[in-house]
Amino acid sequence: METGPTEELVRAPCHDYGRAMLEAVPDRMIDLRQLQVLRAIAVNGSLAGAARQLQFGQPTISYHLEALESHLGARLVERSPAGAVLTDIGAMVLEHAAGVLDRIAVVESDVRARLAHGLATLRVGAFTTAATKLLPRPLRRATEDSGVRVELTEAEPLELLTRVRARSLHCALIYDVAGATPRYGSDLYVEKLFDDPFRLLLPADRAAAGPVDLGQLADEGWIISAGGYDPSDQTLFATCQLLGFRPRIVLRTDNYSVIHGFVAAGGMVALVPELALEQGHDVVVRETAQEVGARSVLFVTPAGPQPPLIERLRAELHSHYGASA
Questions:
Q1: How buried is 195 (Cβ within 10 angstroms: 0-12 exposed, 13-18 middle, 19+ buried)?
Q2: Which string of b and e fits 181-191 if b means at least 16 CB within 10 Å?
Q3: Scanning 23, 47, 184, 252, which has its CA 20 to 30 A from the CA of 14?
Q4: How far apart are CA 174 and CA 273, in angstroms?
Q5: Which of 189, 185, 214 is nearest to 290 (CA)?
């Protein structure tokens, strides 16, 4: 009866197991250790250095290199008393091998992160000001040393809510009118971090002290958002209606740097959230004589239990900002 590769391996002495496997299954596949050895030789410039890096014996390094060269039918390394360098073909193989080894490292990292933290990639959404000023430090503290990657989506609240509902985002920071009646539905869990009050932005030459009566600004040109959802626009129109005028809109933009720049240039005013105020512009910030309220900054997740890392991020956000809610 003929013997197959498995039977040959069973009869092989234990110390020859690796060599027997290679001989019994010729040209079947490349061992990842062979690629690791090739990269270690390239990095260290010698087989001895590769052995120290990988914590292999030098005979094991030689064995894996020879096996890879035999499999490919090409010399990959030139050895000399001065060390070892890759041949042109060896360098080409290493270029491909590096991608393979890097992907394997990602797989291993993702598995460890999923086991430890419930996910391998944390997908977070935020409106732009929150992404700039609120999210970086809590997110870093929540994810440091976790091995979890982060994907950030910047968008307006309505789009972020849609993505959280679809579970293409794990969580999001959004804003809404402060004190608004909850209307998000049972499929979302929404909690307030803090209220962000609205402030009046005026050119520096309009630096009257104290709160400003919006009724005195009936003839001014106003800057509002490009869409119709922004709470500052809603409160501006509602307040001006009570005062008997409709604000004259001269510019629409969602970029707060642009708003500051145009107000500084003169002839325009704006109502902006305190969080969006920027330094370095020739403007003044004033409270209003009328109560114009605030927007609430909210943390949103799908309803139900969340991965541990989401809970860590929630705790960090409350630690940094929840006390002012």
A1: middle
A2: eeebeeebbbe
A3: 47
A4: 13
A5: 214
User: Does domain 31-116 fall into CATH 1.10.260.40?
Assistant: no
Could you tell me the pTM of the whole model? 0.66
Residues with Cβ within 8 Å of 138's Cβ and at least 6 positions away in sequence, in order, are 313, 316, 317, 319, 320
Structure tokens at 8: 């040959």
Pairing of strands 221-224, 248-252: parallel
In whole angstroms, what is the distance from residue 198 CA to residue 291 CA? 9
Per-residue pLDDT of the chain in tens (325 residues, 90 and over written 9): 344 443 343 344 444 544 444 444 445 688 889 999 999 999 999 999 999 999 999 899 899 999 999 999 999 999 888 889 999 999 999 888 888 887 777 677 667 666 766 677 899 999 999 999 999 999 999 998 888 889 899 999 989 999 999 888 999 999 998 887 778 889 999 999 999 999 999 999 876 678 999 999 999 999 999 876 788 998 999 999 999 999 999 999 999 999 999 999 998 999 999 999 999 999 999 999 999 999 999 999 999 988 888 999 999 999 999 754 3
Give the Cα separation of 258 and 264 in Å (integer).
10
Tokens describing residue 277? 């105020």
